[in-house]
Amino acid sequence: MKRRNSVYGFLKGMVSIALRLFYRKLEVHGYEQVPKDVPLIFTSNHQGTLMDAVLIICSSNLHIASLARADIFKKPWVKRLLTALMMIPIYRPRDKVDIREKNEETFKDCFAFFKKKGAIIIFPEGSNGLAWHLRSFKKGIARLAFGAEASNQFNLNLHVVPVGIHYSKHTGFQSNIVVNFGKPIGVADYKTAYEQSAAKGIKQLMEAIRNGIQEKMLHFPSVENYDEQLMALHMLQNEAALKQKKRPLHWVESSQVYINQLTTFKNDHPDNYHHLIQQLKHYLNVLKQHNLKDKTLVQNKSMGVLFAQFFGLLCLSPLWLCAVFNCGVAYLLNRLLIKKMGLTIYFLGSIKFVLGLFVSGWLFLLQAMLLAVFTKSILAGLLYFISLPLLGIFWYRYNVAVIKFISQLKKNRLLNSGELAELMQLRKAILNELDFQQSSKEISNITHHKL
After folding, report:
1. Among 248, 241, 224, 391, CA closest to 319
2. What is the C-alpha to C-alpha distance for residues 127 and 121, in angstroms, rounded to an integer?
3. How many whole angstroms from its chain centre is CA 325?
């Protein structure tokens, strides 16, 4: 396998542009730590299926290979395509082959690629999950790393680069993404431990990798009562947002402070924590009944502000109609394809991106070509093609703005009728339960450090 090829490079460039359109904000941090001209294993939490690998690849200046399940390599033309995309098959028991023999071949291919100073992505969790939580690891990454170094007398200089990936919404269009590269881990640093005992070396390297990823992501130590913990986090962040808007990375880091504080509260005051969880359960149920979000309750907008928002939406409505007319076919076709595929929610974000790139992309290109023929102007067709994804983004954001406007009207109506009085009192009681004075101090330190 070559370290670079033209097909991979072309697709990477195209996908990199698409990522900037698909996501609202995409922040990359810490890549300057990645060593140059050495073999690398990139590894991260695995919450976004295909998108995790795509984000790491497009956040780097390398052509990175990735391991993929072997059953998708069965058709010859698919195998050639995947090989061109620098994907390597990894075998599982369900593949009904001698997985030890087959995976040894895969490992040998990886070893040869590392000798060329190549880079590979591996996800040690082995499966996907939508919770902001780092799950248990498989040992394959450590075995591959030690196998490569041992076959080269620990002179390969192989490094493992931990990466934390955060999705503000795993399945949503126009969400915020943080790709946070951590400090590289030299595999040869664990040579002594590995030579004393392979199990000891693997354990130590796995711990270092886990700590490296966990430091760069948003991690709930426990997923018990996850929805309630998540609501507590959003309540604290929504209160903090009244004073200061946060960039995605600052939001992640400050959220980890809140989560740590909540975990401490759980350990130090278990009875009070149990009472807090019950309050949060009730709060979530009432919000669901009224179809409201906590963020809506926090925002206090006067009728004057709401009227100004309504006027703005009204003025932009012709552009919204233009977006619906020009992007409607692509939107409906994508929805139909997603429904027919019947995929689990884990793959929803990835399939939205793929369909947006290829299905919507080709439809937009066809529309632009038809306009160019009709107007006899290539420039008109080109400008139209560039405008179509921007119109799609506007359409989505306009719809979100309308939903928020309606929710705020509903909240004001319920407040005036007194129906939300009990809910607001419950919210205040929950916030009083949460002691985040120490958190505020730590978050302030994060802010000053960023500045």
Report:
1. 391
2. 14
3. 31
Nearest to 391 by CA among 349, 438, 442, 329: 329
Q: What is the pLDDT of residue 8?
A: 87
- The secondary element (H helix, E strand) that includes residue 66 is strand 64-69
How close are the terminal C-alpha atoms of the chain, in Å?
44
- Residue 127, pLDDT > 60, answer yes
Tokens representing 210 are: 């886990």
Please give the structure tokens belonging to residue 56.
Answer: 């790491």
138 Cβ contact partners less than 8 Å away, ≥ 6 residues apart: 124, 125, 126
Give the Cα separation of 280 and 44 in Å (integer). Answer: 31
Q: Which of 9, 2, 40, 43 is nearest to 217 (CA)?
A: 43
| Number of separate helices (H) and strands (E) present in the chain | 17, 8
Nearest to 165 by CA among 141, 137, 130: 130
What are 438's two structure tokens? 């120490």
Tokens 């929950």 label which residue?
430
Helices (H), 188-269: 191-196, 198-214, 226-241, 248-268
DSSP 280-322: HHHHHHHHHHHT--HHHHH----HHHHHHHHHHHHHHHHHHHH
Predicted confidence (pLDDT) per residue in 183-201, tens digit: 999 999 999 999 999 999 9
Rounded CA separation 432/225 (Å): 20
Q: Rounded distance, CA 12 to CA 357, Å?
A: 12
SS3 68: strand
| Sign of the Cα pseudo-torsion (242, 244, 248, 253, in order) | negative
Residue, of 99 and 21, whose pLDDT is higher: 21
Largest CA distance in the chain: 76
Q: Are 139 and 168 in contact (CB under 8 A)?
A: no
Q: Decide: 137 and 209 in contact? Cβ < 8 Å.
A: yes
CA gyration radius, the chain:
25
Residue 129: count other Cβ atoms within 10 Å of its Cβ: 15
**Strand, helix or coil for residue 117:** coil
Which residue segments constitute the domains of the chain, with CATH numbers given? 6-214 (3.40.1130.10), 222-451 (no CATH)
Query: Residues 164-178: what's their mean pLDDT?
Result: 93
Nearest-CA neighbor of 175 among 185, 165, 184, 163? 165
User: Could you count the other beta carbons within 10 Å of the beta carbon of residue 177?
Assistant: 22
Cα angle 63-66-70, degrees, rounded to a multiple of 5: 145
Whole-angstrom CA distances from 184 to 30, 38, 79, 211, 331 are: 10, 11, 32, 12, 42
